Amino acid sequence: MASPGAGRLKMPRLPLVSRRAVTDPLVAHMYDRKFPGRDPATEPGQTASGAPGNFEAVFAHSPDVLEHLVRGFHLKQTRARKLPLHYMELAIARIGWASSCRWMFSEHIKILRGLGYTEGALADLPDWQASDAFTATERAVLAYADCFALDHGRVPDRLFARLRTAFSDEQIVELTYVAGMFLANAAMIRALRLEHDDYDERVREMPSPPEYRFVDAEPAPLPKRG
């Protein structure tokens, strides 16, 4: 079966900013870090993790927005966080899955692998509710992530009480901010068709025989039972 979007050039919905057009120092820093020695607009390549590498090159159209995004990523990653990184990454990966953001799910599964999660646990993440691979605290984090991605932030009191048992108030604020930030990122990634999320809409009318026409008529009677 062909993959979604197969047969057309995979490009985001906005053009990539050429390195030659970059004047902002933070954008230049990000280009040097993500695209060392090349111009992403004219020399396509892959990031270290295998992604197309166009996220920064599209958001570079607005250096202020790119800076806001990058500082959010830095806030999540810095050692100053009180919440252990693996809990944040677990929430992010789950949000990627639940919001159908292929790139987010793929990138953060790789991070979880690097943090020591087993292949069995990673394979169970899509249906974590039926898995015994996660601790009670991890399950609370995953459920909290689902509340963001699937229920618009509606969180049951009993679930929040579990979080308060496991984490400090500061840690809960960090988890909440990271979950909300990455949910927004997932929506932007999909809207702009960035990285691994450049594929055609899969929910569409499928072809039928040319002679098919719907007829609004009384249905034939069903046979009587027994």
TrEMBL record:
Signal peptide: none annotated. Gene3D superfamilies: AhpD-like (1.20.1290.10). It holds the Pfam family CMD. The lineage of its organism: Bacteria, Pseudomonadati, Pseudomonadota, Alphaproteobacteria, Sphingomonadales. InterPro entries: AhpD-like (IPR029032), CMD-like (IPR003779). This is Carboxymuconolactone decarboxylase. Residues 77-146 form the Carboxymuconolactone decarboxylase-like domain. Residues 33-52 are annotated as: Disordered. It comes from the Bacteria. One of its GO terms (molecular function) is peroxiredoxin activity.
